[in-house]
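Exercise 7. Given the encoded structure of a 150-residue chain, write a plausible sequence.
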């Protein structure tokens, strides 16, 4: 409730920005953990070699670090999406009914007693992360192709 009061005072209650911000709260620790593991796995050797060869910090990030961090970024995006997909209470409290998300749309159907409706929505809910990661893969491949041409 303290978070709700804070977001209302900041003018973010009943807005999409407030809902996006409140969805970061349960996902941020996982995001930090995944990216920290990615950077620890990366090390500094390759970036130092690129610096010795005269690459600027931006070029080092774009050509060395980013391609090696892509598995961590993929994991981070999927984990964040799945956690955020299940945030019914936070969305209801901060969004106040003005912001409609998938959990708010699906929740009344999940509480019904019709098992076929629940099964159908469960399949849809299971397919959403797969569709999300598929679209992320397409976008990442387009970005990598564009970066490699530069």
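Solution.
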């Amino acid at each position: 409730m303290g978070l709700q009061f804070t977001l209302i005072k900041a003018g973010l209650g009943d807005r999409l920005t407030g809902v996006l911000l409140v969805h970061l709260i349960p996902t941020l620790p996982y995001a930090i953990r995944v990216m920290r593991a990615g950077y620890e796995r990366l090390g500094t050797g390759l970036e130092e070699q690129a610096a010795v060869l005269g690459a600027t910090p931006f070029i080092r990030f774009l050509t060395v670090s980013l391609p090696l961090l892509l598995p961590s970024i993929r994991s981070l995006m999927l984990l964040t999406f799945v956690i955020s997909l299940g945030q019914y209470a936070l969305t209801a409290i901060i969004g106040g009914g003005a912001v409609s998300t998938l959990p708010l749309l699906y929740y009344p159907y999940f509480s019904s007693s019709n098992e076929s409706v629940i099964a159908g929505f469960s399949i849809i809910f299971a397919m959403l992360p797969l569709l999300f990661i598929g679209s992320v893969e397409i976008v990442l491949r387009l970005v990598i192709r564009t970066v490699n041409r530069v």
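Remark. The mean pLDDT is 85. Students should compare their own answers with the one above.
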